[in-house]
Amino acid sequence: MGRSVQDSALFGVSRRTVLKAGAAAAAFATVGAPSILRAQTPAVKIGILQPVTGALAHDGDLGRLGAEMAINEINAAGGLKALGGAKIEMVFGDARSTPEAGTQEVERMQAEGVCAIVGGFASPICLAASQAAARYDLPYLVDVGVSDQIMARGLTNTFRFSPGFGKVTQVALDNLTKINELAGKPAKTVVLVHEDGLFGSGLAKLLQTELPKRGFEILETIAHPTPARDMSNVALRIRSLNPDLVIPSNYYGEFVLLARTMQQQRIKPKGVYAVLGGAASNGRFVKEFPQAAQNVIDCNHWHDPQNPQAQALRKAVEAQGKSFAYNVPLNYSNVLLLADAIERAGSADRKKIIEALNSSTFEGHIMPYGPTKFVNGQNEGATPINTQIQGEDIKVIFPEYFAEAKANFPAT
Asked: Is 406 exposed, middle or buried (0-12, 13-18, 19+ CB in 10 A)?
């Protein structure tokens, strides 16, 4: 978007003079040099959709942060090279924690001329928003939404770089089985606790089918709404059942509420093994409720802890006094993926971007994934990993290739 040195020289204005002149130079350019404005490369608009108000606001803020950091990084490095150094302009939409609001924001972004949309966070929002975007052949990159229903519809505009809950459940159970075996198989019984929406209910059904195949007995499955204001009855039921494991699948607020209630009631299972736990891989949970958070294991999205770029991103976020969670590296990586597709397409044309995404072998992300390969919009190289809250930090404990620490299991 910026004027080149050569353009400035044509009018006898050096780069230093332009920079010093600030607003005066901008006024000069507008009034005295309209040809320069015509020569500038227009910005490429991309939509960033996140729920930054309502029940999911904490996660939405983190998602927005990750996208912003990627956009700033791309622009600072010279913009989109294939488009003459065009800068990326973010068109932000607040999904307000509901599918209806997410759909409204897609319509607004369409009217504002975005070439693609990244985000959504929650499965119901992603499901509705990607469907709305499909009406305009508008590329939609799901950041988190794990419901496999999102990808099962065969929408040609919709891509998910991260794994869905089918893949996450498979990996979570494989890893749980290995962790349990290494500890001498102390865990045999399980209570499932899940939010009653698209994400939690779908995941619970998979777990109900697969856990018994691995030798685990499910004592009970407990559903709760989002938002939930009290977990006392859930905790009391867990106490009466006395399971070896509690497996929660819910969003941030409900996960924290459950963990704190269990702590207050001194309910201490051999392990809390979350599958896509809303707070279990979140720095804010560790910082604000360290006792309730201790030893919680999660199978979830997470960055590659050995990747220098990922390490730098985490430090940059924490240097701002903000918590770090998977939403940041996922949205960061999705924006980089989109920028790579635009570069290879050599265009902001939506159909060309979709073609570029379908043929993507993108490696510039910071996730612990295999080679990027989209099949019917789903990245086959995506996989979750296991983390555990140990002390004041979140450590990767499985698989061993990425591990920073050994699992503390059963919890001591």
From this structure: middle
Q: Which CATH class name applies to 44-163+306-380? A: alpha beta
Structure-block tokens of residue 190: 């399980």
Sequence letter at residue 396: V
CB 256 within 8 A of CB 285: yes
The SS3 assignment for 257 reads helix
Query: Measured between alpha carbons, how far is 258 from 236 in angstroms, rounded to an integer?
Result: 11
CATH code given to domain 166-300+386-398:
3.40.50.2300
> Measured between alpha carbons, how far is residue 293 from residues 64, 385, 411 in Å?
25, 18, 12
Per-residue pLDDT of the chain (412 residues; tens, 9 = 90+): 443 333 333 333 343 333 333 433 333 333 344 444 445 689 999 999 999 999 999 999 999 999 999 999 999 999 999 999 999 999 999 999 999 999 999 999 999 999 999 999 999 999 999 999 999 999 999 999 999 999 999 999 999 999 999 999 999 999 999 999 999 999 999 999 999 999 999 999 999 999 999 999 999 999 999 999 999 999 999 999 999 999 999 999 999 999 999 999 999 999 999 999 989 999 999 999 999 999 999 999 999 999 999 999 999 999 999 999 999 999 999 999 999 999 999 999 999 999 999 999 999 999 999 999 999 999 999 999 999 999 999 999 999 999 999 999 999 7
Considering Cα of 62, then 65, then 71, then 77, what sign does the dihedral take? negative
Is there a shared CATH topology between the 44-163+306-380 domain and the 166-300+386-398 domain?
A: yes
Domain ranges of the chain: 5-39, 44-163+306-380, 166-300+386-398
Residue 43 is classified by DSSP as P
Which residues make beta-bridge pairs with 189?
217
Q: How many residues does the chain have?
A: 412
Cα–Cα distance measured from residue 184 to residue 381, given in angstroms and rounded to the nearest whole number: 32
